[in-house]
Inverse folding.
């Protein structure tokens, strides 16, 4: 399970968070170090709700089995964690157990945070006790369906699927790669979204020694890409993406928009370069077998340029997309993402592409890329048949090899969007 991080939510938080910055390790205090680590862990995104104080909790998380509300982690002694000892704080973060013995649901990524070192736990504790404004806000009570409302069952889940083993570096790693692995596998909790899950919503792999770790998955109906090796990107492109929400070929959409806005944009260059170096060491996941033969880059561009005998999808692309992404599907560097070869266009599930077509996307404003680039949504302009035709063309045009999209698949996404 993973918390829903809505774009409207992090826009609301932007002003409140503007003062928090990353600090250089040699001169920082323990509280400042904790503030930086809290950014790395993206704590703000899940433990804050629109219109409520930062870290006061109350964000609704649709688990599929009921609604989980994030907890108040401000230093208020009654409603928050102000009365926690450092050990109790560590147990909540790394084991998912509150001081009274209540088990947290794994929407809190304690399975990843178990790898956080003692020194970093100490810094996080100092920050949440002395660097965060207390709030007496009481979040709504979590309401789960039977039998998931029986929290003692989480002890069984933890026994079967969780691990309290500390971070372990693989043989042969450089200091840089080791640091990147520590951030990705621990506080960054990247596996929460990017590792496939089993029948009990458990991650199928725990670290980079297993081939399924970071091999991609599904999150709230979106296909999540593999991070293993990222063969189409250089280390510099990875850093650029995490720092600004865009690079020469791609731009963020969906949940990753919030991750960049709240977390990775605030990490220093050395940590981002470590993350990139680590990801590049991972052997790429096996490519998906193509189900549809691509038309070819030149053939697609030539037909769109001639603009004769067009299919519905081709006509819709010319009318709505070609001005930015061009007839060759190459877009414009750092402005309009490339569609030819794009992960979202070639994913086994078309849900992510359908979401973007219908809802649009926008990049976050970061220090190194303050301008916000907006793609409009076409959900109100296009009906299900038209969205399906357009998505099918994008998935099969140029060198793309995605399967056609059905109206039923579009209708499913449209229903989800109306419920958000």
């Amino acid at each position: 399970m993973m918390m829903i991080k809505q774009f409207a939510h992090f826009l609301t938080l932007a002003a409140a968070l503007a003062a928090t910055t990353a600090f250089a390790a040699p001169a920082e205090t323990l509280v400042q170090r904790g503030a930086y680590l809290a950014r790395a862990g993206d704590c703000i995104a899940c433990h804050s709700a629109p219109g409520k104080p930062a870290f006061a909790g109350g964000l609704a998380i649709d688990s599929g089995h009921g609604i989980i509300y994030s907890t108040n982690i401000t230093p208020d002694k009654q409603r928050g964690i102000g009365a926690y000892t450092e050990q109790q704080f560590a147990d909540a973060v790394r084991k998912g157990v509150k001081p009274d013995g209540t088990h947290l649901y794994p929407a809190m990524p304690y399975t990843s945070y178990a790898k956080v070192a003692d020194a970093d736990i100490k810094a996080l504790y100092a920050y949440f006790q002395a660097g965060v404004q207390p709030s007496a806000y009481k979040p709504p009570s979590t309401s789960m369906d039977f039998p998931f409302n029986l929290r003692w069952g989480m002890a069984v889940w933890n026994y079967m699927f969780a691990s309290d083993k500390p971070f372990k570096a693989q043989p042969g790693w450089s200091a840089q790669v080791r640091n990147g692995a520590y951030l990705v596998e621990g506080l960054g909790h990247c596996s929460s979204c990017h590792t496939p899950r089993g029948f009990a919503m458990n991650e199928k792999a725990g670290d980079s020694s297993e081939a399924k770790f970071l091999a991609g998955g599904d999150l709230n109906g979106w296909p999540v890409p593999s991070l293993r090796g990222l063969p189409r990107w250089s280390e510099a492109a990875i850093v650029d993406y995490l720092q600004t929400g865009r690079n020469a070929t791609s731009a963020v959409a969906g949940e990753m928009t919030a991750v960049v806005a709240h977390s990775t944009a605030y990490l220093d260059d050395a940590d981002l370069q470590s993350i990139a170096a680590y990801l590049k060491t991972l052997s790429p996941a096996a490519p998906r077998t193509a189900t549809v033969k691509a038309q070819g880059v030149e053939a697609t561009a030539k037909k769109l340029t001639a603009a004769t005998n067009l299919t519905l999808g081709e006509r819709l692309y010319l009318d709505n997309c070609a001005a930015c992404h061009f007839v060759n599907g190459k877009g414009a560097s750092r402005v309009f993402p490339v569609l030819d070869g794009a992960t979202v266009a070639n994913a086994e599930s078309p849900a992510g592409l359908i979401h973007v077509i219908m809802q649009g996307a926008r990049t976050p404003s970061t220090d190194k890329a303050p301008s916000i680039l907006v793609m409009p949504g076409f959900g109100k302009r296009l009906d299900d048949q038209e969205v399906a035709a357009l998505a099918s063309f994008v998935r099969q045009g140029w060198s793309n090899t995605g399967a056609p999209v059905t109206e039923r698949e579009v209708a499913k996404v449209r229903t989800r969007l109306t419920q958000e």
